[in-house]
Amino acid sequence: MTDRTSSRSDLPIEEAVGGACPSFVTAMDIIGRRWTGIIIEAIGRDCTGFAEISRFVGHIGDTMLAKRLRELETDGLVERTVVDTRPLRVRYTLTIAGLALLPILEDITSWGHAYGATENPTGTSDTHERDTRTTEEN
């Protein structure tokens, strides 16, 4: 019965049994790395040079940024191009796979606005206050 599917009709049962779908795990391994999403967003917003990306991301060291850019290139999400000028310039662009991530990252941002824990001026998280209100209302 290899044609049976799990409760999600798009996952073959072999992928769903015994854990998460391997494609999901791979995707989360890539986009779950610290700084990855914001680097992709930066390049998607036309920050194509190393310094531009660094300014957009903020609070990331040059070594870590270089490492993440190499990983994203290896993962097939970012393309690195050396521009033959004096001095040489390196530009980063998103591949088709990287561009396909942009709307997903926008959805994650929307979710973060709606449900994410953000600090408010009182120092407590919005999620904690929502949970407290819900408990008090019941």
Automatic annotation (TrEMBL):
It comes from the Bacteria. Residues 126-138 have a biased composition (Basic and acidic residues). Residues 21-120 form the HTH hxlR-type domain. Keywords: DNA-binding, Transcription, Transcription regulation. Residues 116-138 are annotated as: Disordered. One of its GO terms (molecular function) is DNA binding. This is HxlR family transcriptional regulator.
